[in-house]
Amino acid sequence: MVSFTVAGAALLAVLAASSASASDQPAPDCALQTLGVGEGQTLTHYRGKVVYLDFWASWCGPCRMSFPFMNGLARDYAARGLVVLAVNLDAHRKDAEAFLVRHPAAFGVALGDNQACARSFRVGAMPTSFVIDRTGAVRAVHAGFRPGGSAAVRSEIERLLAEGSGA
Amino acid sequence: MRRILPLVVLVACAAGYTTVEPWQREVLARPDMASSPHPGVSAMADHAYESREAAGGAAKAGGGGCGCE
Known about the structure:
The structure holds 2 protein chains of 2 kinds. By secondary structure, chain A is an alpha/beta fold.
């Protein structure tokens, strides 16, 4: 009985440790062709800032809903050190460009072939967003987009913005 | 030839397995790729079939063929 409890506690400890390490890992680096910023910009360039990195495509419905949310993030937190980057994964660039005409983005949008980047981040759903802290570690992963969860994401970003902002 | 035939068949079948990444599902995500793209049409067809054939299975009881049940 006691040994079962001990084994259970050990198992829980292992599970807790593994889930914590799943999102406190250094973010993989990607070369991005961000509109307006320039070609070949890498993710490490934003070290020292909090990065909201979103993988999207024009055909994905929840991605469409996430654009107003990301516009709000950029508007409210850019001054405090947040960078919003939306990495496009469309097969045809013109689909992404048509989408951007209908849903204007007030944040960084990276077009081009970003499949290798998505693979290195192990994107498992469309959209998937990664919240990267000032040290370059992935602190949160959000698979999919639910408008109801946006308040929680905002408070999480505020917490990360407060970390080390005085330094 | 007879010895390598099963191997050839196996390789040919294995070629059918491939991984589709989430960002490659553009065509698969289209509404007309759904197993039942027009639910209204499917329901009407089911209704006609079940009432004629009395083959409703678990969904419906068999009728007299009038299509009115």
